[in-house]
Amino acid sequence: MDNAGMHARAILLSLLCLAPLTAAAQPVRQAVLETSAGTIVWDLLADKAPSHVALFIKTAEEGGFDGTSFHRMVRYGIVQGGDPVTKDPAARDRFGSGGLNMLTPEVSDELLTKGAVAAVQIPGKPDSAGTQFFMCINPQPALDGKYTVFARVVEGILVAQKISETPVDEKGLATERVELTKVTIREKPAPAPEPFSTEPVEALARYRAVLETSAGTITVSFTPGKAPNHVRNFLRLADAGVYDGTSFHRVVKGFVIQSGHLPTRKEPLGERQQSFIRPLKAEFNDQAHDAGTLSMARTEDPDSATSSFFIVTARAQALDGRYTAFGKVESGLDVVQEIEAVAVNGETPVERVELIRVRVEKR
Predict the structure, then answer these.
(1) Domain extents for the chain?
(2) Is 201-362 a domain of CATH 3.30.450.20?
(3) Average pLDDT of the chain, as a whole number
(4) pTM, 2 dp
(5) Class of domain 19-187
(6) Rounded CA gap, 52 and 19, in Å?
(7) Is 292 left (phi over 0), alpha (psi -120 to 50) or beta?
(8) Which of 2, 79, 216, 235 is the most core-located residue (most Cβ within 10 A)?
(9) Is pLDDT at 8 greater than 60 in this prediction?
(10) Which residues are within 8 A (CB) of 144 and not within 5 positions of it... i.e. 6 or more apart?
(11) d(CA 225, CA 274)
């Protein structure tokens, strides 16, 4: 270790002895990383690695990370940053050499699973960690027990994944600059309730959804008294834009038109959108599957509905009590009929019928 490294380490150890950061003394804190690719949020694991968290917070509050870059990455594997040398793009030949030799290991039972954030160390020198870190885009089990995990990505893993796709040279160094523009430390906010999770049934009945399609507009109203959780789910997905850019992928003439199937979506879901996709417990009820009924598609498992829904085009008694009906077409039944009339190959439209956007309105 050089003299500068020894001096920096002595100062840090003195600081930690005077003001140790422990879970008992501090609330749960988060780091908000604003990058040129998007925002990433970490939970800081002060109970697992107090010295590493203390150094990270100190460096962040002094602006030590601002203007650095993510200099090394393995596509869909890891992303590395935190080197102060990377503030100078002209010093590329020294990227990866700064901010080291400051900490001793704090290896815990935290595994290097997806989203784990660990301290970088020089190969063969476990006491060489410092400000450099790497994020795991996917699990790295070969590294378990060898590196200090001091944080976890709780928002923005898709941003980190995007950063991992940055082109690299033969040494694994990024050939394009992805900048860490600012790091902010905050207390972890209390979890907010999911959209449409707290409204009473009477309030849910005042919502409607406007389906803008390539064939015209369909407006649906809801029957939350029959299937409240399905109504909440549809409103949540619609409000989050999950349905936007999907298609009416299934048309069965004299029976149903179906949409909301995620593989038909033009763009991949964002992280927040993905968090809303989950199986729904069936809410079979006495609403009849008449023409214009809005109902949820599923597999053979009654509790397997997620996002795909259908609109009935003719009386379908066989569906009553076996599929969860949760709304009906309020206007635009002629558009439903137009979609039903498209040319099909089996049950698949020959030409794409787009569900352009779903708007939630309150009456």
Answers:
(1) 19-187, 201-362
(2) no
(3) 93
(4) 0.74
(5) mainly beta
(6) 13
(7) left
(8) 79
(9) no
(10) 111, 112
(11) 27
User: Tell me: the pLDDT tens digits for 33-75?
Assistant: 999 999 999 999 999 999 999 999 999 999 999 999 999 999 9
